[in-house]
Every structure is written in C-alpha cells, then in structure tokens.
Specification:
By secondary structure, this protein is α+β, with helices and mostly antiparallel strands. The protein is about 45% helix and about 20% strand. A hairpin with a 5-residue loop joins strand 4 (about 120-130) and strand 5 (about 135-145).
Length: about 350
C-alpha cells in the first residue's frame, strides 16, 4: 500500500496567504514610493535651469536636464549611449580624465571650460553619483555659465550701490526735515508734532517707492494716501482728478512733503478742520508752454474763513522755495477767505517724472 504525504492544513494555508498579502502590500508600497520619487526627480530635472548630465560608471548617459541640450546634442533616446558618441558644443573630451579620477577617488572636481565658439566659459563641477542603495553609480556633471554669474554679480553690485545711495539720500532728507522743523517751531511740543508728521509722510512715500522702485510713484495714489492719513475720504471731503502721472522716486519724496504741508494746514486751519469742509484736487498737462508743464491745483472750500499767516513757516517755504529749487517750478498761494488756493506748475522732464521708457 502506497504511503501518502499529508497535505497542508487549512490553518497553514491561511497563514501563508496572510504572509503573502503582507508581503504584497509592502511591495506595492515600495513601488509607489519609488514611482513617486522617480516622478519628483523627473519634475526637478525638467524644471531646473542648471545644465546637468548624469553618467554611469561606463560614461553612459543616465539622465539629463533640458538645459544641458544647449551644450550637448542630447535627446531622450540617447539614454544609455556613451557620452563619447554625443556631439557637443564644448570640448567634453577634456573632462574624461577628471571624470575617471572622480570615479576612482570619489573626490569632486571643478574646472573651467570654454565653448568651442570661444564666446562662453563654464564652471564645470563633477561629483560622484550615489544610487538609491548608496553605491557609486557614476557621476553628476553640472555646467554653470560664467558670464551669467558675472552678470548676476554686477547686478548685485549695482543694487548695493543704489541701496547705499538711497540710504544716504534718506538720511539727508531726514536731517533736513529735522533741522528745518526746528527752525520754524516755537515750542518743543510743536517741534515734536511737526517732525513726527513730516517723517510719517516721508515714510509713506518710501513705502510707495519700494513697491515699484523702477516704475515711479503714481501722483493720484500719492495724494490719496497722504489725505487718508488725515481721515479725509475721497468723495466725502476730497475730490481727486487728473491724468496718469508718475513721479521719479526722489521727486515723489519732495512732492509728498508738499502735500503733507497742505493737508496739515487744512486740518489745523482750513477745510479739514470742519466736517463741512471740502478739498478739490486736480492736475492737468499744459502743453501751451515750452516745455510742457504739470499744473497741480489744490482748492479748499466750505471751511473756516482763511487769512494769511503772520509769518512764513516750513510749509510755505517748502511750497514756494523748495519746489522751485528742486523742480524749477512755480507755486502760487492765495489765502482767500473761502479757502486756500494753491497752484503748482512743474516743467515736464525725465529727472522729475517717470516715463514708460525710463
């Protein structure tokens, strides 16, 4: 009678199935992780602007970034081809000894390499490439455009010089405001109040300038921002109208102080000192003059009766003398009983006003 091998019990089969299910789940998880990592790497390689190529230990192409195609004639089907078979715009054969040394010593290498046309130089960096199992699987070679670095460094130098220039100008304006506020103040309290208001106006203008350093400062925005600081609402206590005009940053600082002085005077003695008061602010371009002029008009009404001040203070000096000096402009002040009337005429030029071409 033949001897039969006993079969696996249902309990044993169930245990085996459970173990297989666990192993399959772990394998699926690892595959998903690997797929995600591969997708992330592909996304990174496609987005980076650095020219990079990955070679294996036999100097075959494993991967590359789109930027490298400006130097090496690579297409997707070149994956797996020896780098020696790829046409290049650079003398890549000069790198072969460096590549082999990096593979042998695992120490990175760096050198400069000129393009075959001689117009562009590159900093070439060669590093060992570690695989996912942390073994050396080849090298990573990056090419950095030296002229691009030089341009970036030059731009940084210019930005630093511009920053230093603006800081000096800012400190000069602050010193001038402090000195002239002291000259026109009769008490410490008056000095502190005037200085605080003028510095705040200057700070608001600086905030406008830094939003778009190269685009100039919009006149309407400058006026509205300053009057909003005095709780004057457009359409209620002020009406603002005029064509699109943009000041150069330094000119905007001076003109903002002029608006501040007019608004401060209106709050203390003029239209903004009463709920019924109104200010009409408008400007136009007068092309009948040579050169053409910006004509800015400030009209107060429905406030208390106005009379000329007993003496000329900081505000009047700024409006009549500083604007004339800074802008070669002309200011007319009329302290009419119904309200202050101020007209400022400024010649149009690129030093004062921003134009689309700079």
């Amino acid at each position: 009678m033949a001897h039969e091998e006993p079969g696996a019990s249902p309990e044993e089969l169930q245990l085996v199935n459970e173990e297989l299910t666990i192993i399959n789940g772990e394998l699926t998880h690892r595959v998903e992780e690997l797929t995600r990592a591969t997708r992330d790497l592909k996304s990174f390689l496609e987005s980076t602007r650095i020219a990079t190529v990955f070679l294996d230990n036999e100097l075959r192409v494993m991967n590359f970034t789109p930027a490298i195609t400006q130097l090496l004639h690579l297409v997707e089907t070149d994956t797996g081809r020896p780098i020696t078979h790829i046409k290049a715009r650079i003398p890549i054969e000069e790198l072969y000894d460096d590549i082999r040394r990096v593979l042998r010593t695992l120490a990175s290498a760096e050198r400069e390499l000129s393009a075959l046309d001689g117009d562009t130089r590159y900093i070439v960096r060669i590093l060992p490439y570690h695989s996912i199992d942390d073994v050396i699987a080849g090298v990573v070679i990056t090419f950095i455009d030296v002229p691009a670095i030089t341009r970036a460094e030059e731009r940084q130098r210019l930005l630093l010089a511009e920053l230093q220039h603006r800081v000096r100008n800012t400190l000069g304006v602050v010193r001038s405001i402090a000195r002239r506020s002291a000259e026109s103040a009769t008490t410490v309290e008056e000095y502190a109040s005037h200085l605080d208001g003028r510095l705040n106006a200057f700070a608001r203008t600086q905030a406008l300038v830094t939003r778009d350093p190269e685009g100039g400062v919009d006149l309407e925005y400058l006026v509205v921002e300053e009057l909003l600081a005095y709780n004057a609402r457009e359409g209620e206590q002020m009406q603002v109208s005029g064509p699109k005009v943009r000041f150069q940053p330094k000119a905007a600082e001076t003109f903002a102080l002029a608006i501040h002085e007019l608004a401060t005077n209106a709050l203390k003695y003029g239209a903004l000192s009463q709920p019924s008061g109104r200010i009409e602010i408008g400007w136009r371009i007068d092309e009948s003059t040579e050169p053409a002029e910006l004509v800015f008009e400030w009209r107060e009404r429905s406030g208390p009766q106005v009379k000329p001040p007993p003496r000329k203070g900081f505000g009047t000096e700024l409006l009549e003398r500083t604007l004339a000096f800074e802008f070669k402009g002309l200011t007319s002040l009329a302290f009419d009983p119904p309200g202050l009337q101020c007209t400022i005429a400024i010649p149009l030029n690129k030093r004062t006003f921003h134009t689309p071409d700079g």
